[in-house]
Amino acid sequence: MRAITLTLLLAALCGLALASAGTEHPLVPCAPEISAKCPEHDPPTPVYFPQPDDCSKFCVCSGGHAYEESCLPGLVWDDQLHVCNWPEAVDCGSRPNP
């Protein structure tokens, strides 16, 4: 029974990997003033900035430029922890919360 469960789990994971292949979203640049804060060379730890126009989005630096990413629905960007978090745990400040 355990082997069947493991086999089904592996099959589901492979299916998810295949389903997501080719569904990458295009890179959306963040505002130039945010990109200007990015280091020219990527450090070992990613550099993040909050998206000023939407609390559920953030910018991540790559190659000296910032690109927009979105949290999963229902979550907002926590600029203190650098993760998407529950809205009640995050102070969005002046960033609009959709």
Structural class: alpha+beta
CA gyration radius, whole angstroms: 17 Å
How would the global form be characterised?
globular
Largest sheet: 3 strands, antiparallel
Individual helix count: 2
Give the uncertain stretches in residue-range form: 1-22
Query: Mind telling me the CATH superfamily name?
Result: Chitin binding domain
CATH class: Mainly Beta
Task: Give the number of DSSP strands.
Answer: 5
Number of individual domains = 1
- What strand line-up does the widest sheet have? 1-2-3
Portion of residues in helices? 10-25%
Overall pLDDT score = 82
The CATH architecture designation is Beta Complex
Termini separation: 45 Å
State which percent range the strand residues make up: 15-25%
Topology as H/E string? HHEEEEE
- The name CATH uses for the topology is Antimicrobial Protein, Tachycitin, Chain A
